[in-house]
């Protein structure tokens, strides 16, 4: 399919990144995946390496030719319990915030050529909630909002759109849940979301249906961020 749109998806071996790669493949895209593991979907062009490494991004870009219609930054480290460990802080910021910045920096010329779209995978932790155990994670995810708004301005002259999807409680191995996936008293819809549901939101933002959407945040959290204080206890 020489006319297929091309996308790079970081973190494509598991969770939301893998679900996004699978959805894009079903929709007819050519997908290059980046992950530290090679367990990516079969039809993905696999680049094994650290998505925060500029040389790895450049290797992925060589597979895309002169144009790149989509970039999804889903690679990330989960929250950790080392809030007072500066090395852990630096690692989280490097992977979860600097990595997406480096990816867009390298990809912007190709995205501009194709009038492409970027989606960062953030979290409601940071922008909407603090984190008692992992301030580094919260800071990185909150930073993605400011980065997306700023890069949306940078990319606008080339018709490059940049947006953020912010998941809430999603049933993936990233962060073990405090409650059963099907019974979440802290989520108005009463359950955890799935990686496929987040992938659907990401693919919408990549699509022509979102051609006038840039610099914005789409929360996929089952209503958790609108839950009134104490409501989970009363339910």
Explain what you see.
This protein is of the alpha/beta class and 235 residues long. The protein is built from 6 helices and 7 strands. A 7-stranded parallel sheet has the order 3-2-1-4-5-6-7, with helices on both faces. Strand 6, helix 5 and strand 7 (217-220) form a beta-alpha-beta unit. It starts with 5 loop residues before the first strand and ends with a helix. The model has no long low-confidence stretch (mean pLDDT 92).
Comma- or semicolon-separated keywords:
single chain; globular; alpha/beta; 37% helix; 235 residues
User: Strand fraction band?
Assistant: 5-15%
Radius of gyration (Å)? 17 Å
The order of strands across the largest sheet is 3-2-1-4-5-6-7
User: Please, how many helices?
Assistant: 6
Chain-averaged pLDDT: 92
Could you tell me how far the N terminus lies from the C terminus, measured between alpha carbons in angstroms? Answer: 51 Å
Report the major sheet: 7 strands, parallel
**Alpha-beta content class:** alpha/beta
Report the uncertain regions.
Answer: none
Q: Total number of β-strand segments?
A: 7
Q: Can you give the helix content as a percent range?
A: 25-40%
Order of helices and strands: EHEEHEHEHEHEH
What is the approximate shape?
globular
What's the quick description here?
It contains 6 helices and 7 strands. It is an alpha/beta fold and 235 residues long.
